[in-house]
Amino acid sequence: MTHQGSAVDALPLRLLTRIVNEYGDAPRAAAGESGAPYPPADALGEEATALWAQRAAPPEKALVETANLLHPVFAAASGGECADRLNTLIAEAGLTPAMAAREWDVREQWRTSRPGRTLLAAATLALLDHLRGDPDASRLGTCLGEACVDVYIDHSPARRRQYCSLTCQNRARTRAYRAAKRAAGSSPSAVTP
Ligand SMILES: [Zn+2]
């Protein structure tokens, strides 16, 4: 049997978006937090805690590198761009599909040939899995909020999510409401009796 690299398990999606938003240069810069220290890897939520209990937490360098490689997938302006960026990540992570058997149960098992890129491989595979179930890549997005380019995955039934969080959504609504009020207040029709 030839050695085909190590098997990759998909990263939980919630952990993936958290890594991008906490460690990525673009989200940190937009939030004015470029100089702030990175959070410790075990402060990324319960998915992280569970995962790092099975294998060592990735070093900060790998978290930053992975975040910066993933952010452009969410910021893609078209499906074609998203596909191109994912193809680049598949190559960067040395990901290849293979088939693995457990008794008669034969399933797809992706592997990576790059030991230093296991986090990127796990994250990329998570996005491939996600798109297999929902190929609409417009649902992978970056927040429209002011001073925010955090990434999100739209799971809403209405399929119209545009913000990373309720906080950003509410802030944008408040801003839009104030702007509308200002516009109404300054328009001639509003001041003329
Ligand atoms: Zn946001």
TrEMBL record:
Gene3D superfamilies: Jann2411-like domain. Signal peptide: none annotated. Pfam families: zf-CGNR (PF11706). It comes from the Bacteria. Residues 139-179 form the Zinc finger CGNR domain. This is CGNR zinc finger domain-containing protein.
